[in-house]
Amino acid sequence: MSDSAAAVASPAARRGRSRRFAVVAGLSCAAAALLATAPAALLGEDPAPAQSASPMINHSVYFTLNESTPEGRAELVAACQKYLTDHEGTVYFAAGPRAEEFSREVNDQTFDVSLLVVFESKEAHDKYAVAPRHLEFIKEQKANWKTVRVFDSEVAPSK
């Protein structure tokens, strides 16, 4: 057995799946903070938001569809854009299908569509959670979901 094959078969590698989730969630948080400030930086503006008493909330959602088809993924992304954009307190919004070309060992391949919303505060997140448009999105779309995984985390841009 080669050294690389032995490393793959180690107990640490077998536990890798749950660690990959942690890595994906952590990278998502870092990307959210970067993406939230990138447009202002490109325009020559100060990208640092005013300091708040509470951290921003990174709301990452990973949907696995009952029937994973290009049409089903496109429909869900369109529904995200229709119902989940422009909520009060939203700093950043993005939704899209899984990028299938990313297939390293650390890349989670068990979802079809991801949603990323960064809120300015927990209060903004909590208002979004019960907003009529958000609830309508769930009502309209949930029959199409095999699983939904939600990762909420506190984030702050680097200084």
Automatic annotation (TrEMBL):
Q: Where is the signal peptide?
A: none
Coiled-coil zones: none
| Top-level division of the source organism's lineage | Bacteria
> Which SUPFAM superfamilies does this UniProt record tie to the protein?
Dimeric alpha+beta barrel
Q: Which Gene3D superfamilies match?
A: 3.30.70.100
Per UniProt, residues of the Stress-response A/B barrel domain are 57-153
Per the record, a Pfam family?
A: Dabb
Tell me what this protein is called.
Stress responsive A/B Barrel Domain protein
The species this protein belongs to is Alienimonas californiensis
